[in-house]
Amino acid sequence: MSKLRTAVVLAKTRWGPRPRTRAALERYQQRRIRKHLRFLRARSPFYAHVYALTDAPVMDKAMMMAHFDRLNTVGVRRTDAEALALAAERSRDFAPMLDTIAVGLSSGTSGHRGLFLVSPADRDAWAGTVLAQTLPPGLTGHRIALFLRANNALYETVRSKLVDFRYYDLTVPITQHLADLAAYAPTILVAPPSVLRLLADAGHELGDLQRVYSVAEVLDPGEAETFATAFGQERLHQLYQCTEGFLAHTCARGVLHLNEQQVLIEPEWLDEDRFVPVVTDFSRRTQPIVRYRLNDVLVARRGRCACGSVLRAIERIEGRADDTLLLGGAVVFADLVSRAVIAADGFTEYRVVQTGPANLEVHLDDLSAAPAVRAELDALWQRLGIVAPSTEFLPYAADPAVKRRRVRRDWQGAEDAAV
Ligand SMILES: [Zn+2]
Questions:
Q1: Distance 257 CA to ligand 1 centre (A)
Q2: If you measure from the C-alpha of residue 155 to the centroid of ligand 1, how many angstroms do you get, rounded to a whole number?
Q3: What is the pTM assigned to this prediction?
Q4: Assigned architecture for domain 325-409
Q5: Domain residue spans in the chain?
Q6: Distance from the alpha carbon of residue 364 to the mean position of ligand 1, in angstroms
Q7: Would you state the CATH architecture of domain 1-320?
Q8: Model confidence over 17-35: pLDDT tens digits?
Q9: Please, are residues 362 and 419 in contact by the beta-carbon 8 Å criterion?
């Protein structure tokens, strides 16, 4: 990685001129978009004739995967990237790379799996932006503990005098990380809410903590206050980061603001307050994110935030609300289950429901894929050291009420299950 490149983005974002008005922000965005489209016309066959953003189609995961080979700007073929990502997912022995390009697999919430390509330049820009937006005042000497699902090379970026990242792999039981975490004494902790809950319950002293960020999952009501108290913080911070980009972060007042200096977000309004974000990232070059519609629903915040930022404020993020499973006394994160399921082929829609202490239902829109899904799940249980639950395969029926939850636990179980 290039520390210099990361540092330049960090400095520009953190100390560069910030738009003082909404109009100035929009002018800045239009300038970045024009420049980005110029690059894409030259390098992405799919965007060869796109001169204005509105010429580009609104895109979702299925469309992005269908046009993968022509969309990306580095000539990577979907079949090659997919084969590599799946092999890495199954073995967990290596971070998948095609030459210098990192290949990521996303389970997402709709349809089948998605593939993402990230170049070193993309990654350094990402790291610079995240650091600029997240480091507390007094920039140096931070130790950042990151609890994340996929050991994607994306996250193993920055280790310098300025900051030190330590990555904690969530595919091994959390108990195995506790001693190391205490010794590392992070100043910043970044983890999904389900992990924050486990860490809070474990009651470890993390005396040097200056900030705690919730990422990747939606917070339940009241959780922010619970975690802030548990970790001795004034407030819990949030990062809204997904495969499609770094989309929002909390300001000093604890309010979520869209990351509109790096992405344009076109709202598709569902009602007066709620909208689906359509995202254009100005700087992701390898696999362009242009007018990409997310599955999340954002709730706009009324009025201006007291922090004075011109970036649009949001009340909360809805969606992506998968459950964790409790199997054999162990917590199994929804994302691990999703990833195992989508490693199999032959279906597009699925749902996994825990119905008892050792009972799962797997709903598939094509049951001929059941043996392949069963094999992937068995491999997961084995990796986690869990006795395979009794698993029943059923036809998938669309249920609008729960459409965003791919993995669900209907069985309540013992609340104090061991980690
Ligand atoms: Zn604010």
A1: 6
A2: 26
A3: 0.74
A4: 2-Layer Sandwich (3.30)
A5: 1-320, 325-409
A6: 43
A7: 3-Layer(aba) Sandwich (3.40)
A8: 678 899 999 999 999 999 9
A9: no
